[in-house]
Amino acid sequence: MNYLKKIISIKKKFKILVIGLCAIIGIVYFYFDHLLNLDDNLVQPETIIMDYTIYPSTIPENELLRIDEAKKLYRSAFDDQVFYGVIDPDSLVKFIKHAWQWDKNAMPYYYDLLTFQELYDDDEKEEGMMSFTEFIRKYRDQLVDNAGNPLVEPKVFRSIEMKGYLWDKFADLKYPYFAYRKSIYYAPCGFDERGIAKLCKDEQLEKSIEYLNDAIEGGYHCYEKLIAQMLFQQGDHYKDEHYKKINKLTEYRKSLKSEDLKLSIDYAQLMAEHSSIIGILRVTEAYLYGLGREHDIVKAYAWSLLSDYAKQKIEEQGNNLAWDSEQLPPVWEYNKEIQTRLEKILNPAQQQAAQDYLSELKNKIIDWNYNRWRDQIDDFHPKP
């Protein structure tokens, strides 16, 4: 009998525990749902009919935010690194006005803001900061369009599918920020248990290339990613995740058309003119093997010497951050192999011709900080 009583008692306690957990979950759910509704008009998720139509921005085109401008405005308005609070209310007012009026470059950062304010709105703020909820309470009347009409947060921001929605739909409409991000979903294709890059399917590479081209048309300088996916089945310049083994140009993927091979070397040369070590190497190989360029061992040797000169510039300037230094050792090693091979077959006159051509190449370098140029986005007029 005592044994049965103990079982009944345990069951009762378990039932109470389950009820308590359900209550807590309900409260948390109510809290987060309430936070997402910035006008305090609580709408239960099951009653929300999501409108996934992509609307053009109502902001005049000449006032739309550039990609970098939207990011900087968000960073200056809201801290999502340490304290998760509002830093500059006036900047945040401007930022939200753009996001709520379908400024495509502001929308992804506004989604980030909602994510952080959900998680940290109750935390104590540093002096001079306020919570996002407090900001909305104090500045809601300033969230108006140019005619003074109150703005309304698009309901789509309340959906957990918002991020996927943005990435997919906006990328397909060729908004460059989203096209660049979407390209990552297709290639490279990960690594196996040994850290070796997996081979991508051609369809994956072509889809990623399509999005990267859209990003480039919108001002991105993502040529390094682009040519890696044009040239190699791994979708990367390296065979492994630790950058120990580099792909050689002779290993280009079999389905690559000759005109695309030439185009990839054109892009590599553009990178090289901004001091890309990978770009310099690919042009060296192109002349050495006659792939995407005419076969010319004098020019190949000159380009290999340019790689040495670039290495010297790194050491002189002490500016290792201008390149991805962990990726360079296999490049130097492979470049030395090429040089040694060429020095055995070039006569003194050919070597002198290569030195003369090297002087021309040095003068063509536009920027000795490749990563700075790679990360820049040209000032293209945003689409509404």
**Major beta-sheet overview:** 2 strands, antiparallel
Report the uncertain regions.
1-45
Q: Give the C-alpha Rg.
A: 28 Å
Q: Give the CA-CA distance, first to last residue.
A: 76 Å
What shape does the CA trace take?
elongated
Biggest sheet strand order reads 1-2
Number of domains: 2
Total E-strand runs:
2
Mean pLDDT: 86
Order of helices and strands: HHEEHHHHHHHHHHHHH
Question: How many helix segments?
Answer: 15
Helix percent reads 40-55%
Class by alpha and beta content: mainly alpha
Strand content: under 5%
Can you walk me through this structure?
With 384 residues, the chain is mainly alpha-helical. The chain has 2 domains: 10-156, no CATH class; 174-375. 55% of the residues lie in helices and 1% in strands. It has a two-stranded antiparallel ribbon with strand order 1-2. The termini are far apart. The model is unreliable at 1-45 (pLDDT under 50).
Please outline what is shown here.
The protein has 384 residues and is mostly helical.
Layout of strands and helices, then pairs:
Blueprint: H1 2-36, H2 67-77, E1 78-79, E2 85-86, H3 89-100, H4 107-120, H5 132-139, H6 162-172, H7 176-183, H8 202-217, H9 223-231, H10 258-272, H11 277-289, H12 297-317, H13 329-343, H14 348-363, H15 370-375
Antiparallel strand pairs: 1-2
Helix pairs in contact: 2-3, 3-4, 6-7, 7-8, 8-9, 9-10, 10-11, 11-12, 12-13, 12-14
Features:
384 residues; mainly alpha; 15 helices; 2 strands; 55% helix; 1% strand
